[in-house]
Design a protein that fits this description.
With about 400 residues, this protein is mainly alpha-helical. Helix content is about 75%, strand content about 5%. A three-stranded antiparallel β-sheet has the order 2-1-3, covered by helices on one side. The longest helix has about 60 residues, at about 140-200.
Length: about 400
Amino acid sequence: MPNYVYTAKNETGAETTGRITANSKREALDAIHRLKLFPIKVEDSRKGEISIQLFKRRVSDTQVAAALLQLADLLDNGVPVLHAFQTLEKQTPNPRLKSVIKNIHDRIADGESVNSAFAVHSDVFNELTVSVLRAGAEGAFLEDALRRVGGFLEQQAELKGKVLGALIYPIIILLVGIAVLVFLLLWAVPQFEELFDDLIISQGKSLPLITQSILFVRDIILHYGLYVAGAVVFLYIVIQGQLSTPWGLRLWDRFKLRLPLIGNILLDGAVARFSRVLGTLLANGVPILKSLEISSQSAGNAVLSDAIRRSADNVSSGEPLAKPLAEAGIIPLQVMAMISVAEESNTLETVLINTADSIERRSARQLDMLVRILEPLMLLIMGGLVFYIIAALLLPIFSLADDL
């Protein structure tokens, strides 16, 4: 039987706190009234238990999506809600997600609604998931809502995996190249420096500029490396501090959108997320103003989020969605044209989801092309730097041989 922690006032107005055992929150309230207390706040003591379990082990979007889809299958096949959560708990491999599902089961058993039980675990289920489940519970289509939001999370996780998978090879090239450069600078260059001192500098001759530049970089690393590293860390902390402010985040996101090649891909990704989230919410009966609020937070770009919030303000005054979004000037004209037509034909949610699919396919092609260009480009850059170091080391020896 769960325990409830309460804050209440007695007949004299003095505030008191305590703990009471009851089968449900309603029973806890009745018990508090019988004590001649006036409850101010009553909470299930188990609310804080999940936050300390397993040191907040992360639950991935893929695991959340799988759990929601499995729950939808159980409910579709006539399994009672409480029994469905019990079955899901037994079949969930992630320990933290298992604990969360058990907590949701217990809350529903105590009389809480499904969406409020999910909402307690906002660190696992985002606002999009909770809003869709709330609409599904209120509209008596919970199974469909679970399936839709599960499919959405699964698709987003798959897209994120494709992006990371495409970038693995260029990142490996970059790391290997940096390791080779550091090895040459810190091991090979000192070996040749002694030779230069004995055979060239001792004779009053100067080293080629290319060699001097390599020795200068090597000296900087050896003598001032810690200072440089400290400056980089300090600069990183300053930048992160600025990015935590609305002004800094907007400036950074605006800068990213103006980057050549990458800017268009980032903009398409933000517009696709906005379109899919907004379409998913509207398709599940979430009011448009609430949908715009959630989709603005899910866009992943502060500039686009500001445009969406301004659109929400105009929509609340009766204007169509397409007009304020078009005035923002950030969403592509083709997308704006489809949104405008969709509003007139009352098919906005369908068109938004189809638009997201189209944009994501185009972004995937652009990203694949960018990665194909990036791989040989990084190889050329790393190879060029290695060749520069080797040439800087061998050029003095060749010039010495010519003198002989």
